[in-house]
Amino acid sequence: MNELLNVNEVSISFRQYVQGLKQKNLEVITDLSLDVREGEIVAILGSSGSGKSLLAHSILGILPENANQQGKIIYKGQLLDEELKDKLRGDEIALIPQSVNFLDPLMKISDQVIGDCSEEEYPQKKKKQEELFKQYNLDKDVEDMYPFQLSGGMARRVLVSTALMNNPKLVIADEPTPGLDEKAVAETLKHLKQMAENGVGVLLITHDINAALEVANRIAIFYAGYVIEIALTSDFKEDGENLLHPYTKALFKALP
Ligand code: ADP
Ligand code: MG
């Protein structure tokens, strides 16, 4: 499998200000390296606040203003700099965001799912949006709604549809399933798996260990901004013998 994404010794820190004066840098991610190959699902498991969403946002080029990033991210052999991130975001590289606040409150749902497109492209895009809505069990009248009219689960399914709209090559799914019913969870995982079978690389950030064990080729464990363990899913499935770090052991011990 060809390498798609290579995160190479990335560190992310925040400038901290008190009453407008810079105080210090707070490092949240330290020397993090990770790669995703074409057709591969890499799951990221880790405690809240360990830097998972920040890594996702850094790949997409949507880090907050006060963040400072070091290290390199390579996409298909090219340095993923700000210019390339801007070009690929929402297109070749798509995010299923953790927060439903990513929806624009003032924009009709179908318009934001379809995104910017030319008049010639529109009929094809519209068809794709309708297919995705059918697949994710979103009624036709959702198209004309605004975000405040959606339930949490509907908003999540809209975010999934938006991310998959432009047939991305790399999908970063940041906890895509909480709040979804079992059918929608299974549908989302099935869809991610199908995409991987078609060569798409998937970074699946999740707290659902069973989902990771079910669909991922490899699992990376995050802890306090470090990747403390990364291995083939089969290594995690064995009875804990191959798990080195106490956090990983504790995580997997909690499984029924
Ligand atoms: P998670 O693994 O739960 O997705 P995040 O990546 O969202 O964690 O956050 C990692 C850490 O970065 C958290 O401790 C959070 O407080 C910190 N952080 C996130 N955004 C900012 C910000 N804009 N300014 C300062 N710290 C931040
Ligand atoms: Mg997060």
- Ligand types: adenosine-5'-diphosphate, magnesium ion
Strand order of the largest sheet: 6-7-8-3-9-10
Looking at how many chains there are and whether they match, the oligomeric state comes to single chain
- If helices are DSSP runs of H or I spanning 4 or more residues, what is the number of helices? 9
Largest sheet: 6 strands, mixed
H/E element sequence: EEEHEEHEHHHEHEHEEHH
Radius of gyration: 19 Å
Low-confidence stretches: none
Portion of residues within helices: 25-40%
What is the straight-line distance between the termini? Answer: 33 Å
Mean pLDDT: 91
Count of distinct strands = 10
Structural class category: alpha/beta
Shape label: globular
Task: Indicate the proportion of strand residues.
Answer: 25-35%
Describe the structure in your own words.
It comes from Methanobrevibacter woesei. The protein is of the alpha/beta class and 256 residues long. It contains 9 helices and 10 strands. It has a 6-stranded mixed sheet, with helices on both faces. It is globular and about 50 Å long. Bound molecules: adenosine-5'-diphosphate and magnesium ion. Adenosine-5'-diphosphate binds next to helix 1. Residues 14, 28, 46, 48-54, 64, 66 line the site of adenosine-5'-diphosphate.
